[in-house]
Design goal:
about 850 residues, alpha+beta, 3-stranded antiparallel sheet, 31 helices
Length: about 850
């Protein structure tokens, strides 16, 4: 291992200026203020609040239970041969590893965590304070009020975990901890006023002087409440602190807050506090819930160790190549059928099965219960399952996975003793592992992969990476048609990428000689596709969305801002070619903007600043600025940018990704052929009839006229507007529909409400290809007696309209086309 001389002053953690948190009386209003501050990128208020609320014993104990379930679990490391490595086992047994496990678990509660490694003398782990972690700027702030800090992306001594807008479990527990603390304070004041016993003094009504003496005695006898009454009267006093008093409300409120905290953190309550119905069976159910969360935590920590820590250890010379950190407790329990199938490809000691299922070892000569079979150990798994089926035994639910894996092993003579570990890695592994486990050399689509790519990029469109610079007002307008067109482009891009990645994995599958070879090559490929490239594409989508938003706002304000200025972010990461455009000012209507409007490259961070006429005219040489741009447009750098699919104004075209960036050339116009076999069967959604049978109500046909129904709809000019499930406006041109659908116009009128519901509350939404162009949205709505389809189309960045709607003729072969292509929504998603 490579060891350097220690220099503690170089550690980032030793440069961080740590200040005590601000502790003060908290209320829910302060929690909301802290959350709003965090939304704007300033974490100090929220994390100071978290630290203060951790004084709450119930919250702190619940967090400790989750963390202790990880730190107290057995953690092992096995190399490629399935053997333990003494050096790594010593590292696992260190206090620093426990600190690392704890910090990884802190991500669950705080939403982020970071550590700094020091390998100079030995393996050391130091915590980075949470409020010094700037996920948006990808830096560690040395002072909690700083805006600039130490970048962590290229520093492999720093491990930073978390997502920008994830504020952890503490965000949900904070209100209950605040309310409980306030409730205790209120209860203390209430007891001070009403909780003390009341004293009653009695005097003779015939002796007024004795009353005065009694009152003076009561006043001098302490602060407890008192009354004086004549002996001849009766006064009933009520205990304010008993079980039936109003004070019980405070205790109920405290219990309710504790329960909400425990449910949020542990998923249940009975393993920490005894409920009113604390039956053993109920407690066991609660324990199962908690253990389910513990297994989820173990898998989460295991993935972090294998994906983030292993590369760092390997770089420092630790013998970890091909190895794997494993929490044995995190592995899913194998079913009997899975164990039987595993026995076909690996040796399983009989004693393991006897101990696992508490089955006694048979004595010599004792009769043995065993299924009669003529199949040898080398019999193909497929034939084995066929024979089982003939005896009435159905194949397991994951039969397809095991069949494909076994078929591959026929070509894998070089499998090592670690095969079992790899099988478990595919079953219980991360997203990439599951994807590789589904490959069979002929796979043509993968729904989970498409969902991962598309939903990640759709989310990127919603994140505005940059607000308009130097503008003191905000516009809140963006065309629904434009947003939908951008999303359609993202779905097209995601489909093309899915097909390209599946094609490459199939190729590796067919070319590999062994499972080890396939897994190693496929792991690198999926890392490139799903991490490296996906991250770049995410940033590009975010920047395009932000830049398009700016354009759509500014284009309507050219009277106020007749000039625009091109700017870079001005740091040392700006590309040289982009510096050539930095500061350029041109009129808003200059056609050059259609070529240089940012982004101008992958992960380009350039932006546009609006300028008033008074800022430019008589001050800026517009002619010289045009010459700068023209020189740039004739450069070799510009040629490279155009070949990469940039050099256009995507705010006009509504293209997040151009046709040249679609992984598959001209994909949108080839989609009909490439996706011809992707339909509802691919997603296991069931037939039209099966989905209708799950509905409880039949459709009530509309009896009125179309004009009467449309009277209550939104209108814009001469067009009617409906809303889709995203609350976006879908245009309906009623006169054009009447003209083009004369034959079916009358019979469609009774389905107007169904069309409206299909758009607003669809059971399925598909993007299908018409004339090979992937631009048609099919909204499907099921009723007990009928299926309704509403068809909308998206064109460019300015058309999102209803084309038609109708009851589906389920026996017609063309009905399949309605549920073919890209599934982008199903059920209540």
């Amino acid at each position: 291992m490579t060891v350097k001389k220690s220099d503690q002053s170089n550690l980032v953690v030793n440069q961080v200026i740590i200040k005590a948190p601000q502790r003060k009386t908290s209320d829910v209003g302060q929690w909301r203020t802290a959350l709003q501050s965090a939304d704007n990128g300033r974490m100090k208020l929220l994390y100071d609040l978290y630290e203060d609320l951790l004084i709450d014993g119930v919250l702190a104990d619940a967090m400790d239970k989750r963390i202790s379930a990880v730190t107290n679990s057995e953690l092992t490391f096995q190399n490629a041969k399935g053997e333990s490595v003494p050096e790594i086992m010593d590292l696992i047994d260190s206090m620093d590893m426990e600190e690392l496990l704890t910090q990884i678990m802190h991500v669950r509660f705080w939403g982020r965590a970071a550590v700094e490694f020091d390998f100079t003398t030995r393996f050391r782990v130091y915590e980075i304070p949470k409020k010094h972690i700037d996920l948006k700027g990808r830096q560690i702030l040395l002072n909690e009020y700083d805006t600039k800090g130490v970048p962590y992306e290229d520093d492999d001594n720093l491990m930073v975990l978390g997502k920008q807008r994830d504020y952890g479990m503490f965000l949900r527990t904070a209100p209950f901890a605040i309310w409980k603390r306030g409730g205790f304070g209120d209860y203390a004041q209430w007891l001070e006023i009403f909780g003390m016993p009341q004293r009653v003094g009695k005097y003779s009504s015939y002796d007024p002087e004795s009353r005065k003496l009694l009152e003076e005695a009561m006043e001098n006898a302490g602060s407890a409440p008192w009354i004086v009454i004549p002996k001849e009267t009766e006064v009933e006093t009520t205990n304010n602190t008993g079980n039936n008093s109003s004070g019980a409300g405070f205790n109920d409120f405290r219990k309710a807050c504790n329960e909400e905290i425990l449910i949020t953190v542990l998923g249940q309550t009975l393993t920490t506090i005894q409920g009113d119905k604390g039956a053993r069976s109920l407690g066991e159910v609660h324990k199962v819930v908690e253990e389910g969360k513990n297994r989820s935590d173990l898998r989460f920590v295991q993935r972090i160790l294998n994906q983030r820590l292993l590369p760092l250890l390997e770089k420092r010379g630790y013998p970890v190549n091909g190895g794997w950190f494993v929490f044995p407790r995190a592995a899913r329990e194998l079913t009997v059928s899975e164990i039987v199938q595993l026995s076909e490809i690996m040796e399983i000691p009989a004693i393991f099965l006897h101990e696992k299922f508490s089955i006694p070892v048979p004595e010599k000569g004792e009769s043995i219960a065993r299924r009669q079979t003529n199949l040898s150990k080398s019999t193909d798994l497929h034939n084995n399952n066929v024979q089982n089926s003939s005896h009435g035994t159905n194949p397991p639910d994951d039969y397809g996975f095991w069949k494909r894996l076994m078929g591959f092993f026929v070509h894998a003579p070089a499998l090592t003793g670690a095969t079992g570990n790899h099988l478990m890695r595919l079953i219980d592994g991360d997203f990439n592992d599951r994807l590789m486990g589904r490959m069979d050399g002929k796979q043509n689509w993968d729904a989970e992969l498409f969902d991962f790519i598309s939903q990640n990029l759709i989310q990127a469109l919603k994140v505005k990476s940059r607000q308009m610079k130097d503008v003191e007002f905000v516009y809140n307008y963006q065309s629904d048609a434009f947003l939908t067109a951008q999303e359609l482009n993202v779905f097209q891009f995601s489909a093309a990428k899915t097909l390209a990645e599946i094609n490459e994995l199939n190729r590796l599958y067919r070319e590999s000689e062994s499972f080890e070879e396939f897994y190693q090559k496929a792991s690198k490929l999926t890392d490139v596709f799903n991490k490296t490239w996906q991250r770049t594409e995410y940033y590009t989508a975010t920047n395009v969305a932000s830049s398009s938003d700016t354009y759509q706002r500014l284009i309507k304000k050219t009277r106020l801002f007749p000039y625009w200025q091109y700017k870079t972010v001005g740091d040392d990461r700006v590309r040289e070619e982009h510096w050539k455009l930095h500061g350029v000012i041109l009129p808003a209507n200059d056609p050059r903007w259609n070529k240089i409007w940012p982004p101008n490259g992958w992960r380009c961070r350039c932006y546009i600043v609006p300028r008033m006429a008074s800022d430019v005219e008589g001050i800026v040489d517009i002619k010289a600025n045009r010459a700068r741009v023209d020189a740039y447009l004739s450069s070799s750098e510009w040629s490279k940018i155009k070949k990469q699919g940039f050099g256009i104004n995507r705010a006009v075209t509504a293209q997040v990704f151009t046709a040249n960036q679609m992984y598959l050339n001209k994909f949108p116009t080839r989609a009909g052929k490439l996706l011809k076999d992707v339909n509802y069967r691919t997603y296991n959604l069931g037939s039209f009839e099966q989905n209708r049978q799950q509905k409880t109500s039949e459709y009530m046909r509309y009896q009125g006229s179309a004009e009467a129904f449309l009277t209550n709809q939104e209108q814009e000019n001469d067009l009617f507007l409906f809303r889709d499930y995203n609350e976006r406006r879908v245009v309906f041109d009623y006169p054009a529909y009447q003209k083009n659908h004369k034959k079916v116009y009358a019979e469609r009128t009774e389905y107007f409400p169904a069309m409206k519901e299909a758009l607003k509350m669809p059971d399925e939404v598909w993007i299908s290809a018409t004339h090979n162009n992937l631009n048609t949205y099919n909204f499907i709505k099921y009723y007990r007696d009928v299926t309704i389809a509403a068809v909308a189309e998206v064109k460019g960045g300015n058309i999102y309209r209803i084309r038609t709607w109708f009851p589906v003729n389920e026996n017609n072969k063309k009905a399949l086309q309605l549920r073919s292509g890209l599934l982008i929504k199903k059920g209540g998603e």
